[in-house]
Specification:
Blueprint lengths: L1 H32 L7 H22 L13 H17 L5 H16 L9 H13 L2 H24 L5 H35 L11 H11 L4 E10 L8 E9 L2 E5 L7 E6 L4 E4 L3 E3 L2 E9 L12 E6 L2 H13 L20 H42 L1
Antiparallel strand pairs: 1-2, 1-8, 2-3, 3-4, 5-7, 6-7, 7-8
């Protein structure tokens, strides 16, 4: 029995030893080159480690020649996800109190008109309300800078663990890089503040997208009808277990509808949901018999039921980042988070029809201009972060 046991286990032991030898060969080559009598040997070793650290960092950010993680997103891919998924979602979650905005517009129009009253819509009222709305976007932009800096710190920590055989050098590299990241983070926030100051200093009513923003948006929506934005699997949760309970479906999101099938073959169609007037509601993480799941809901505030006899469609998945990515995809389809203020809009114009028209006109213009600024922020903030933080740390 002992002989048979040795015969069975010896090949696996030999293979394991060979793998360890292959893994240690690079270090053995370095040790053979080590000359204790060379007065510059410490400098050479340190410079070699620094060059390798620098190359690995660039590879981690750019996504090539790096130890690819097969279990989760890492390195530059996570930073890209922050730019194109988390930033738009944070900006879309910015809540504007509709009642407060209309009240402020009404009061501002009266104040800037003075004792004479107004015949035409005052430009100053539009400027004042626009500037207040633009300021609200500053905090989400700073939050994105912090998220990117956290990802860079995670990359640095992972690379420093690779040179742990030189503990002093590893500790010093980690400290130096974190100091640079902190300095670049503050510099980037100051740069973004300058961008916002520029937006507040001049309201460009001659912007090519301003006057016809709503028309262009409508035309774009019609042109993109049928374009597939995303595909993937999610779990639906019905109100009644007798109607099916929780079940996985294959979802296809286009610019104008959400379709779900039995599986990814896309043959057995279950339902086609039009996205017109549909809103997205945030749901907290829920625990069930199969573990915790992150979820969100779709509903139509203008209708009793969203589809069939269901008031809402609850979608969930185990991975929170997967759910956040789907929320960003719904933004591209024109499905925005519910802010809960539009259903109870009050009027602050009394019985003055002229004032009501002015308030409605300025509200529409503010909406149009704020959309332009939001798109500009989604473009400028990633560029600022890459230029001030990522490229500075790389060089």
């Amino acid at each position: 029995q002992l002989t048979n046991h040795i015969r069975e286990t010896l090949p696996s032991i030999r293979q394991s030893l060979m793998e360890q030898i292959i893994k240690l060969e690079p270090e053995v080559i370095d040790i053979k080159k080590f000359d204790p009598n060379d007065p510059n040997i410490k400098t050479k070793v340190m410079m070699s480690a620094l060059y390798k650290f620098s190359d690995d960092f660039q590879s981690a950010v750019d996504g090539f020649g790096y130890a690819i993680d097969l279990t989760e997103l890492s390195g530059g891919c996570r930073i890209n996800s922050i730019f194109h998924e988390k930033l738009p979602l944070k900006l879309a979650k910015v809540e504007f109190d509709e009642n407060e905005i209309r009240r402020e517009i009404s009061i501002t129009i009266r104040n800037v008109s003075g004792v004479r009253g107004s015949i035409f819509t005052p430009n100053m009222a539009f400027d004042i309300i626009c500037k207040k709305q633009i300021k609200i976007f500053h905090d989400p932009a700073d939050e994105v800078v912090d998220l990117v800096c956290d990802e860079l710190r995670a990359i640095i920590s992972k690379l420093c663990s690779g040179i742990s055989k030189y503990p002093n050098l590893s500790e010093e590299m980690d400290r130096a890089c974190r100091t640079i990241i902190a300095e670049c983070c503050e510099k980037c926030k100051r740069f973004i503040s300058v961008v916002f100051e520029g937006e507040l200093a001049y309201i460009n009513t001659r912007h090519p997208d301003f006057e016809s923003a709503s028309v262009k948006k409508k035309g774009k929506k019609e042109g993109e009808s049928g374009q597939v934005i995303r595909k993937g699997i999610m779990t639906t949760t019905n109100v009644s277990v007798l109607k099916g309970g929780s079940r996985d479906y294959w979802f296809v999101l286009t610019a104008d509808c959400l379709v779900w099938y039995k599986d990814d073959k896309e043959e057995d169609l279950k339902f086609r949901l039009l996205l017109e007037h549909v809103k997205l509601r945030e749901d907290s993480t829920k625990g069930g018999m199969f573990g915790k799941k992150c979820s969100f809901s779709l509903f139509n505030p203008n209708a009793k039921n969203l589809f069939k006899d269901q008031k809402q469609l609850e979608l969930s998945h185990e991975d929170s980042e997967y759910i956040e990515s789907w929320k960003s995809s719904f933004l591209r389809a024109g499905v925005y988070p519910d802010k809960g203020a539009e259903s109870a809009v009050e009027t602050f114009t009394g019985n003055d029809p002229h004032m009501e028209r002015n308030v409605e006109k300025i509200r529409s213009m503010v909406d149009s201009y704020v959309t332009i600024v939001r798109n500009l922020i989604m473009d400028r903030v990633p560029k600022a972060i890459c230029h001030v933080v990522v490229h500075s740390l790389r060089t």
